[in-house]
Each structure stands twice: as C-alpha cells, then as structure tokens.
Design goal:
131 residues; alpha+beta; 4 strands; globular
Length: 131
C-alpha cells in the first residue's frame, strides 16, 4: 500500500502526487487520510485526461471483476474495516504508477487487474526487503 511506503519515499527525496477521479476535494482528502496519505497532493481528473496521456488503459470485465477482485474487497471491507465509498468516475479505469523526472516518465507500472498492487519503494528506486 502506498501509505506504508510513503515515509521511505519522502525520506528518499521523492514526492507523491495522486491523480484521482473524485470531484470533491474534501472527499479526496478524507480518502487520502484514511489510507496514510494525509496531505499528499491530489489532482482531480474526472475526465481521465491524465490517465489517457499516461497510456493507462480501461480494464476489461475480467480485470475489474472476478474472484481475485472480490477476495481483495472482502479482505478490505470485512477484515480491515475499510468501507468503500460510492463509486465515482470510471470504475473500469485501471490504475498505474509513474515515476517522473524532469517531466519525463522514467519508470512505470500497470496492473494486470484492479487487485494488483505494486512495490512502491522498488518503483521509486529504493532498496526493498527482497534485495
């Protein structure tokens, strides 16, 4: 989860900016705070212009629904008590992570499904537990 990697990323001198589809800045701020990202800059992109410019695709049905995604939802809602809000924006849009330097994409990660999560520290070029 990005919130867990935030301290390492900040300490390394990198910053985090989250592009999101929420229209209400207060709603984004609440969601960010609940996920350990309080105070992180958010860029509202309900029209998905940034997603398209970054080449992040919309998912197919199997990438946004199915057993892996349902299991992840079950874990988040029932076990972690992380209740989802009302869906906003394009629920078929897949996420992605871009590492930018001087305005250029130097590293990217795209999920195979909406259940996938990257190793944020590794993407930022930071040492990880795995080596």
């Amino acid at each position: 989860m990005l919130g867990r990697a935030r301290e390492e990323i900040d300490r390394a001198g990198s910053g985090i900016v989250v592009a999101h589809m929420q229209r209400d800045p207060a709603q984004f701020a609440a969601m960010a705070a609940a996920n350990g990202l309080g105070g992180v800059e958010g860029v509202a992109d309900p029209g998905l212009a940034l997603y398209r410019a970054a080449g992040l695709p919309r998912g197919r049905v199997g990438q946004v629904m199915g057993p892996r995604i349902w299991w992840r939802g079950f874990v988040n809602v029932l076990l972690k008590r992380n209740l989802p809000g009302r869906p906003e924006g394009d629920v078929m849009q897949l996420s992605g992570v871009l590492l930018l330097h001087d305005g250029h994409i130097v590293r990217r990660w795209q999920p195979a499904s909406s259940a996938d999560q990257p190793d944020y520290a590794a993407l930022a070029g930071l040492p990880t537990d795995g080596g």
